[in-house]
Amino acid sequence: MVQSSKKIQGVPEPTIRRMPSYLAFAEGLLRKGQQFVSSTQIANYMNIDPTQVTKDLSYTTIVGKTRVGYEVKALVDVLSEFLGFTIMDNAFLVGAGSLGSALLHDSGLSHFGLNIVAAFDVNSSTIGKKFNDIEVFHIDQFRDLSQEMNVVMGIITVPAENAQTVADLMVAWGIKAIWNFTPARIKVPEDIIVQNTTLYSNLAIIFNKLHNDRKEVL
Amino acid sequence: MVQSSKKIQGVPEPTIRRMPSYLAFAEGLLRKGQQFVSSTQIANYMNIDPTQVTKDLSYTTIVGKTRVGYEVKALVDVLSEFLGFTIMDNAFLVGAGSLGSALLHDSGLSHFGLNIVAAFDVNSSTIGKKFNDIEVFHIDQFRDLSQEMNVVMGIITVPAENAQTVADLMVAWGIKAIWNFTPARIKVPEDIIVQNTTLYSNLAIIFNKLHNDRKEVL
DNA sequence: TTCCATTAAAGAAAAATTTCTCTAATGATT
DNA sequence: AATCATTAGAGAAATTTTTCTTTAATGGAA
User: Fold this and answer.
1) B195 is in which domain, residue-wise?
2) Which of A59, A86, B16, B121 could form a disulfide with B96 if both were Cys (CB 3.0 to 4.6 A apart)?
3) What burial letters (b/e) apply to B18-45, b meaning 16+ CB within 10 Å?
4) How far is B96 from chain A (nearest CA, A)?
5) CA A27, A33, A35 angle in degrees (round to 5)?
6) Is the pLDDT confidence value at A9 over 80?
7) How far is the CA of A218 from the C1' of C20 (A)?
């Protein structure tokens, strides 16, 4: 079988997943005024192996000093830059329902390099409303607005059964990356980046552990 | 180094992550009236290897029929059950800010076995409000309400720097599992289940691919 | 009925990721 | 100044996860 999204020997995804936590930790230390942080200290905080930390950080440009560690300020800068949180990308969100409007409210996203410029829906009761200064338009206006604004990312927060339709629409109007919050798996051309984020998967993982513990206590 | 959360030879996490998508697919087929589905068909939908599907499903009780596949209805039932979506668990949410209130609005969660019974915050402007019929209390009332209600899960949606404080509080009042939406890593006793869900990690993965593509076009 | 194509399932092989081991460097202590 | 303890970093080993291979079963076509 042909692999659909071949990794071009990039940074391992688990590494990228850990980095925002390194960043959060470093930001905390910066606030506290700590100047240096060792890989051991970061590892303790993360509950992982110290060598994992140095390996992860070796993908960035930062270098640590023996017996001292990494400079906290530099770590914050390097990680923010590396994770793409310093570049602003414009995004459209489709599906201004419960989860969608939630994301619109989350001004945190704008601190991490994501600028949602408009939202779309088919539900007439939400169209015309504004969440956090982001207006909700009818999906039919998607085409016109795509051309006006420089939008690279599409966020899908519609019901799972409509995910593919929305994805097709996004691809048709030139979107480069899709952040899919539905459990549905969408089909798109090879060059489109897709990130599936299913909150319910995380829930399933918790339940699995929780309900297992109930059965076999050991 | 001692592994903090030793897996007791359970189901691989990547498997559990894929299952909600299998479920969504099966539910779609059920709506369309399809009776059987082959591992090949599921694999096509998921863009993964068919043997991955059979291996994943082998962790459940379902067995497929040669040359026919899995019964769709049974698949839906078995997966819902397996993922813990049929058992209702009560949860508290702490931090009714942008992301927190978003989750409160997401009635989807209740369809997946999670019942958020109350929310807490320190911000007086949100206290007393109701989102989706869930009331926001002052964090000081956490103790009293924990005892009244049978709450097994705590959801943390406060700013990263307050995550540990909230986690300590949850542990103190008998919560079994914590769903942590902050990039901060919290320290809890061994027997407490922690699931970290950092939206910004997913964002970082997209940016990584997106910005890399901009540089090295190949 | 007989054969064929398709399928689930089990086990082996490969790939990816994490952990372990070792080395060199250097700030702190004596 | 000399020694020691701690650290980053590189590479090897182990583990985990995915993919490949093989086998057995069986519904449908000839």
Assistant:
1) 89-202
2) B121
3) bbbbbbbbbbbbeeeeeebbbbebbbeb
4) 11
5) 85
6) no
7) 28
What is the tens place of the pLDDT at every residue in B162-190? 999 999 999 998 999 999 999 999 999 98
What would the pLDDT profile of B20-43 be if each residue is shown by its tens digit? 999 999 999 999 999 999 999 999
Taking an 8 Å cut-off on Cβ atoms, the answer to whether A28 and B205 are in contact is no
Claim to verify: residue A78 and residue A102 sit in the same structural domain = no
Distance CA B77, CA B32 (A): 16
Share of chain A above pLDDT 70, in %: 93
Pair B159, B124 in one domain:
yes
Residue B51 has pLDDT above 90, yes or no: yes
A 114-153 residues with CB < 8 A to B: 114, 132, 152-153
Instruction: Return the closest nucleotide (C1') to the Cα of B9.
Output: D16
Residue pair B90/B149 in contact (Cβ under 8 Å)? The answer is yes
Across the range B133-143, mean pLDDT stands at 93
Q: Nearest nucleotide (C1') to the CA of residue B36? A: C7
For B49, nearest residue in chain A (alpha carbons): A1
